[in-house]
Design goal:
With about 170 residues, the chain is mainly alpha-helical. It is about 70% helix and about 0% strand. It has a two-stranded antiparallel sheet. Strand 1 (about 5) and strand 2 form a beta hairpin. The chain starts with 5 loop residues before the first strand and ends with a helix.
Amino acid sequence: MTDDARAGSSGSPVVVTAVLPFPLEFEALYVKNQEDYHRFARAVLKDQQIAEGAVHRAFFEILAHWPALLAAGNVHQQTWAILRRTVISEKLTNYRDNLAELTEDSDVARALCALPPRQFDVTVLRYLCGCPTDDIAWYLGVTASTVDYHGRKAKERLEQAMPARIRRSK
């Protein structure tokens, strides 16, 4: 086939753009780790398509930060951290979406869904998953004091959102 290949009967030339190559080290990391990354994402997310999307997003983030990751060292540890954060973020988003379906029946679910994303993440990771503050900070890429702040603000919002009958029963 030649460079002046024609598309259909219109006679318009087919424009072929070359895909830019990935850095060789990045390609090696991908080939070496992608099966394990997919296996981890499938185990956490319990859905093949969602897991593939999460791993795909993680590799795009890794590629976007590739020069900095190489310069900082510990590439495998850092790329695993990016993958974990991406998968956990996907899990929290799915959880929030599923929880939203319950909002008609539950004041608590409605109040949780109304939280801003960081407050929701901290609340779910802390109270529903039992994660310690330092782990939450690491997952979300913030300091422990920021996790505590979001936790306090979430608690305030949840208390305000609860109907008076629930607040009185405390």
